[in-house]
DNA sequence: CTCCAAACATGACCGCCGTCATGTTTCATT
DNA sequence: AATGAAACATGACGGCGGTCATGTTTGGAG
C-alpha cells in the first residue's frame, strides 16, 4: 500500500535521433532494416539525469524506451525498505518491455544511473511493428527467455552463496559489463543483495588479500581469476 | 563441473492423445483451432512416475513438453547442494519453453512431482507453428514476461523476508494452486528457500497459534487471512 | 502383521551478517 | 579556501536460522 506515484512524462526535446539506429542498434530495429524507418516518426527523445525516475512501479506502461546513451537500472524495493537492483540496461538496450508484453503494470522502478538519453515509442507503434514484422516477436521472446534465466540464476545464487562471494561476483559483473560507471558501495550492495557495511568490510578484506586495490572511492580489480574463484567463508 | 548426465528419452506409448486439447487446453493450442490438428501427428505421449527426471540441467532442449496430467517441477541445485524449486507446472502447462526459445541448454532439472502424463513435440514442429501462426509468438512472449515478474518477485521476497513469512506464503501458494498434492516438509522448504528443520519448527509454531492444523503429515490451513498477514519475527 | 527406510520432530550450538552508533574522508558548491 | 552533505569506514552486539545429532512416527512392501 504505497502512495500513488506520479509518472514523470518524457518532456519532448528537438527530434534529434533521426539516425539513432546507427549509434546503438537495439534488438527490434536490428530485426529488419525497414523497422527503424517506421519507428522514426513515432519516436520521442527524452533524457534524465542521475537518480531521476524514468517510471515508477505500479504504473501502466504506455510504450517502450530505447536506451541511446547512459545506464538505466531497474530496482525493486521490498516491504522492509531495502532496494534490489534487478537489471541494468546500457546503450542499445530496451526498457519497459516486460510489463508491456505481459500486459501488466510495472513491478519495478526504473531510474537513471548516470545521465541518460532515451527514445520513447508509444505502445500502438510497437504493436504495429509486430503486425508488419512477425519475426520481431520471436527475437523478443528469445530476449525475455534469457532474462528469465539470468533472474533465476541470480536468485538461487543470492540465496545460497555467502556475502563475500556475491560481492566478488558483483564487482566482476559490474566491471565487465558497465566498466565506465563508478559504483558506490550502496549500489554494489543493492546488486549483490547485501548492505553497504558488509560491502565495505569485504572490500577491505579483498584489498588485504591483494585481490583488489582501492584508491579513494575507485575500485581496481587486481586479480580477477582469484577473485572469481573466491568462495564464501 | 558435474558429471555429464544422460537425457532420459520419452518412451513412446500408444498414441492415445488424439483429442488432448479437450482435457487441458495449453497456451499454444488455444491460440488457434488449427494448431492442435497440425501438432497431432507430431506428438509423442510419455509419462513419468514420482521423482523421475524429465530432463536434466545442462542438456540441449529438443522440443517442448505439454503437461496433460500431474505436476512437474523445475528445480535448480546450487553448488553447495541445496535445491530450489523455481516453477511448478500442472495440466495445460508447458515445459521446456524457456530454454527452447532462449536457444540455450536447460539451466534447471525437470522432475515429476507425482505421476505425470506429457506430450512431447519436436522443436521443428514448434517452429513451423510459428511460421503458420505468428500470433503464437506473442502469446508466448506474454507468458514468459509473466514468468519473469514472478521470478523477480519471489527473488526479492526470499531475500528480505524472514523464514516464517516465506513458509506462510509457500503454504498458501501450494494449497491455492496445487491443492491436490500433499507436500513434504522438504518440498515446502525447497519452495520457500529454507530447510526442512526450519519448516517443521515454523509449522509447530503456526499450529500453536491455531493458524494451521496438522493431522499426521497433512497440513490444514485454518485461518488463511491471519496466515497471510503473518510477518517475520 | 512385520519390517524398514524415509519422513517427521526436537534440541543444542554457533557463525554469518544485519543493525546501530560513531567517526572520518571525499567532493561539489560557493 | 571554507563548508556541508553524502559517501566511506569501523567497531560492538545480537538474533535469525543453518547445521548436526538423536530419537520418533509413518506408511508402503512383502
Walk me through this protein's architecture:
Two copies of one chain form a homodimer. With about 230 residues, chain A is of the alpha+beta class. Chain A has nine helices and ten strands. In chain A, the strands form three sheets. The first copy, chain A, has a four-stranded antiparallel beta sheet. In chain A, helix 6 (about 165-175) crosses helix 7 (about 185-190) and helix 7 (about 185-190) crosses helix 8. The termini of chain A are far apart. The interface of A and B includes residues 80, 108 and 141 of A. Chain A binds a DNA duplex (30 and 30 nucleotides) through helix 8.
Label this structure with key terms:
homodimer; 233 residues; alpha+beta; 4-stranded antiparallel sheet; 10 strands; 41% helix; DNA-binding
Topology at a glance:
Two copies of one chain form a homodimer.
Chain A: H1 20-23, H2 34-40, E1 44-48, E2 53-55, E3 63-69, E4 72-77, E5 83-89, E6 94-95, H3 97-102, E7 109-112, E8 116-122, H4 123-132, H5 135-160, H6 163-177, H7 185-192, H8 196-208, E9 212-215, E10 218-221, H9 224-229
Antiparallel strand pairs in A: 1-8, 2-7, 3-6, 3-8, 4-5, 4-7, 9-10
Chain A binds a DNA duplex (30 and 30 nucleotides) through α8.
Summarize the structure.
2 copies of one chain form a homodimer. Helices cover 41% and strands 21% of the residues of chain A.
Amino acid at each position: 500500500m504505497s502512495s500513488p506515484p506520479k509518472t514523470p512524462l518524457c518532456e519532448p526535446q528537438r527530434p534529434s535521433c533521426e539516425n539513432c539506429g546507427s549509434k546503438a542498434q537495439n534488438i527490434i530495429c536490428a530485426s529488419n532494416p525497414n523497422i527503424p524507418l517506421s519507428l522514426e516518426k513515432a519516436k520521442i527523445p527524452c533524457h534524465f539525469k542521475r537518480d531521476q525516475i524514468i517510471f515508477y512501479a505500479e504504473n501502466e506502461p504506455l510504450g517502450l524506451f530505447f536506451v541511446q546513451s547512459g545506464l538505466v537500472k531497474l530496482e525493486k524495493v521490498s516491504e522492509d525498505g531495502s532496494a534490489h537492483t534487478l537489471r541494468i540496461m546500457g546503450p542499445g538496450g530496451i526498457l519497459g518491455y516486460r510489463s508491456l508484453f505481459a500486459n501488466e503494470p510495472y513491478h519495478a522502478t526504473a531510474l537513471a544511473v548516470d545521465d541518460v538519453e532515451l527514445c520513447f515509442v508509444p505502445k500502438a507503434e510497437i504493436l504495429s511493428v509486430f503486425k508488419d514484422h512477425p519475426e520481431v516477436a520471436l527475437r523478443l521472446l528469445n530476449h525475455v527467455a534469457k532474462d528469465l534465466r539470468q533472474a533465476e540464476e541470480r536468485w538461487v545464487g543470492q540465496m545460497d552463496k555467502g556475502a563475500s562471494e556475491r560481492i566478488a561476483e558483483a564487482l566482476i559483473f559490474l566491471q565487465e559489463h558497465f566498466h565506465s560507471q563508478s559504483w558506490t558501495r550502496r549500489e554494489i550492495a543493492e546488486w549483490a543483495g547485501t548492505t553497504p557495511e558488509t560491502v565495505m568490510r569485504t572490500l577491505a578484506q579483498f584489498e588485504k588479500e591483494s585481490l583488489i586495490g582501492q584508491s579513494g572511492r575507485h575500485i581496481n580489480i587486481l586479480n580477477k581469476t582469484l577473485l572469481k574463484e573466491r568462495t564464501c567463508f
